[in-house]
Design goal:
The protein is of the alpha/beta class. 52% of the residues lie in helices and 10% in strands. It is globular, with a radius of gyration of 30 Å.
Length: 739
């Protein structure tokens, strides 16, 4: 196993030193001391167990020296030597640790330690570059905490050939993203959550870096002994995964790429017991999702079948960055690819960009890409606008492309999630793009290459080499352009795969989060024609119920009367989310037969009164099926059965129901009572509800804990907000225009 430490930049070395202090030296970092060199020579404080003397304070001095063959001598620490007496006086240097990337001779080490101990330090220690490399080799956990080191090693430590190949593929796909990655507080929280619980959900806005963190967690899991990594985008691909093997399962956009996908939720609900068993078998699972999709999904997830979904520790919002973290990410991207002339122009404005709370890692990548910066004026207002409105900026870039480039973007947009085969070949999507844009296939192929690594990229998978978008936000931006162009909407309706069409378009005058393409009524017949042979499954039911207006639904039912046949046979117990949407839409459109409406209402009422099921009180889809008199009857019946004496409700429930999954049974009972409190609660009942919920909680706590005892991480660098700041964002950019 070999590592080339000379390729590790000063910031990555600081992160490594911080992790070494916590993991190896057992001195978790508490706070940084100020520096005046842009942060390259960081000093920070750590704590350590002093035995009978209690917790003691360490000063850890990180000394980065550029260039191959560099050596650390006492003269290069003269500035730090001048400060050490004050640190000793303040009780901050019981011991003094120097960590350097450079080499240190035995003579220099002795001189350094003697000089610092003469200033009052009780013990001085010096750790040189070769020692650091040995720690990296010895600790997979250390490598995972500072993933930049994966880019400077040979991966020979990964045991199986299959895992090695997968690790290499992840590194190849990440490209420059790894070199620019900053291990933020969110990343360290994700590492800890995955280590503690073996399950994790990474949340964030589009372009916030979820997939990058997921890729590094998968790479780290391979490093720590997982036999393989399986990356999928929907539960339909679970056949690619072996839950009985020690693997890492990485699910990108688990609940939908741009919008809440009802069909996926129902499938995940059925698969949760399998996931739970796999985690007990030391499999690791990482989900990613956009924030607004997660918010829409949560009420429909069966958390009783997968309790980890209720653990706040496994849900990591990767969008929460400190200003220093934002500055470091921006520094890495701009420094890596921009020529010096552009870095000089950008430098006065970068600190303002990094201060924006709407800053995203993908924005930093675009500011580091000459393709993007060549298209905008370099002014403070324009750069801040780019950060505040990233999708609008991307739309502006796409609209300014030449005809061949826009045709190339349209071709990828029309293709399924797998991308466009390279080299491009004749297909229905290509024929449509050529016909509507007038661009020859050869020009489209050339444009794909021209746009590579700015808007497009090539990926290599089992199906061969394919062209995909450089980032999913390009799909969002181009979809917005399509939505404002009748010609392009027609192109999309006619050319997109039908499975994608029902997930992304809206045939109604309404706004849906993540849906950019509203189909005009003149194209309704074309959409219905595309759906003519599509099975009435969960996806189509949710499309009709959630995304279509009365005009569309009436015409669709007239053309496909089996919809009414379906609604006459569906039972309440089998009503999935998509089925509820369609039943509600049929009712709104006056197409739900009265006989069927009464039967559904009767069954829902029976469930509430006999079984204590209270979800109907908060079900915005099915509640409108009830007439005013039926609502009164429902509420009166439930109150009489379950709320007439709250002191007896627990015993009533325990006398009626039992289950082999008692924890799941009483968790569901608690959820039902909480809904009842929200609906029926008042001052007179407040104490009764409180005592009842305490009874249920006490009972749940008394049950045997079926969950595994998860291992806990020994220690992590303490990176809490701005307390970790070595310098302000402005200082980080001091040397960005050098070299």
């Amino acid at each position: 196993m070999a590592y080339d430490r000379t390729t590790l930049g000063w910031k990555a070395f600081q992160d490594l030193a911080s992790a070494v202090a916590a993991e190896v030296l057992r001195r978790p970092v508490q706070t940084f001391l100020g520096s005046r060199d842009g942060g390259r020579d960081a000093a920070f404080l750590g704590t350590w167990d002093g035995g009978t003397n209690g917790t003691l304070k360490s000063t850890i001095q990180v000394k980065y020296i550029g260039g191959a063959g560099a050596r650390l001598t006492l003269s290069k620490l003269s500035g730090e030597l001048d400060k050490v007496e004050a640190l000793v006086t303040d009780g901050l240097a019981e011991d003094y640790v120097v960590i350097t990337n450079a080499g240190v001779t035995g003579v220099s080490e002795a001189a350094i330690c003697k000089a610092f101990e003469a200033k009052g330090v009780k013990t001085c220690r010096v750790y040189h570059g070769d020692w650091i490399i040995e720690q990296i080799k010895a600790s997979a956990q250390l490598r995972m905490l500072v993933p930049r080191v994966y880019g400077i090693g040979d991966l020979s430590h990964i045991v199986t050939a299959h895992a090695q190949e997968q690790a290499k593929a992840i590194l190849a796909e990440m490209g420059d993203d790894l070199a620019c990655f900053v291990p933020t507080s969110s990343y360290h929280a994700a590492v800890k959550a995955l280590d503690d619980y073996r399950f994790l959900i990474l949340l964030g806005d589009p372009a916030s870096g979820k997939s990058t963190i997921a890729a590094l967690l998968a790479l780290g899991s391979l490093d720590q002994g997982c036999a393989g990594a399986v990356r999928i985008s929907s539960p339909e691909q679970l056949h690619l995964w072996q839950p009985t093997e020690r693997q890492v399962l990485w699910v990108d956009d688990a609940f939908g790429a741009n919008q809440f996908d009802v069909a996926r939720i129902n499938r995940w609900n059925t698969e949760f017991p399998t996931l739970r068993a796999a985690i007990a078998n030391v499999t690791r699972i990482v989900f990613t999702s956009r924030n607004y999709i997660w918010s829409a999904v949560r009420p429909f997830l069966r958390t009783r079948d997968f309790p980890l979904l209720s653990e706040s520790q496994v849900v990591i919002d990767v969008h929460k960055l400190t200003s220093t973290e934002r500055a470091q990410i921006l520094y890495n991207h701009v420094r890596r690819k921009q020529p010096r002339s552009m870095r000089i122009r950008l430098k006065p404005h970068l600190s303002y960009v990094a201060e924006s709370v709407r800053f995203l890692p993908e924005t930093a990548r675009r500011l580091g890409d000459p393709f993007f910066t060549s298209k905008i004026p370099i002014t403070r207002d324009r750069l801040v606008q780019l950060v505040e409105h990233p999708v609008e900026f991307l739309i502006e870039v796409l609209e300014g492309l030449d005809g061949a480039s826009r045709a190339a973007i349209a071709l990828i947009f029309l293709h399924p999630e797998g991308g466009v085969p390279s080299p491009i070949r004749s297909s229905y999507a290509l024929d449509i793009v050529v016909r509507l844009t007038g661009t020859p296939p050869a020009d489209i192929s050339a444009a794909l290459v021209t746009l590579e690594d700015s808007l497009t990229r090539r990926v290599n998978d089992d199906d061969g080499i394919r062209w995909v978008f450089r980032h999913p936000t390009i799909t969002d931006a181009f979809a917005t352009i399509v939505g404002h162009s009748p010609e392009l909407v027609e192109l999309y309706v006619g050319g997109a795969r039908v499975e994608r069409l029902v997930r992304e378009v809206v045939c109604a005058p309404k706004d849906i989060a993540g849906a950019h393409i509203r189909v005009p009524t003149t194209l309704y017949p074309a959409v219905r024609l595309r759906l003519a042979d599509l099975e009435l499954d969960e996806t189509l039911r949710s499309f009709l119920g959630e995304r279509c207006d009365e005009t569309f639904i009436r015409a669709f039912v007239e053309e496909r009367p089996e919809v009414l046949e379906w609604v006459m046979t569906v039972t309440v117990s089998s009503l999935s989310s998509g089925a509820e949407m369609l039943v509600a839409a049929l009712h709104r459109s006056g197409l739900l037969p009265e006989e069927r409406r009464r039967a559904i209402v009767a069954r829902l009422t029976e469930n509430a009164i006999d079984d204590g099921e209270t979800s109907i009180f908060e079900n915005r889809r099915l509640r409108p099926l009830f007439t005013a008199d039926e609502v009164i009857s429902l509420e009166a019946g439930y109150e009489q059965e379950w709320l007439h004496d709250l002191s007896e409700t627990f015993d009533t429930f325990r006398g009626r129901f039992s289950s082999t999954d008692e924890h799941g049974l009483y968790t569901e009972f608690k959820e039902n009572i909480e809904r009842a409190e929200r609906h029926f609660g008042n001052i007179e009942r407040a104490s009764g509800f409180q005592r009842l919920l305490e009874q249920i909680e006490d009972h749940l706590n008394s049950l045997p804990n079926e969950e595994e005892d998860y291992p806990t991480l020994s220690s992590l660098p303490s990176r809490q907000g701005e307390d970790m700041r070595a310098s302000g964002p402005l200082d980080v950019f001091l040397d960005i225009d050098e070299g």
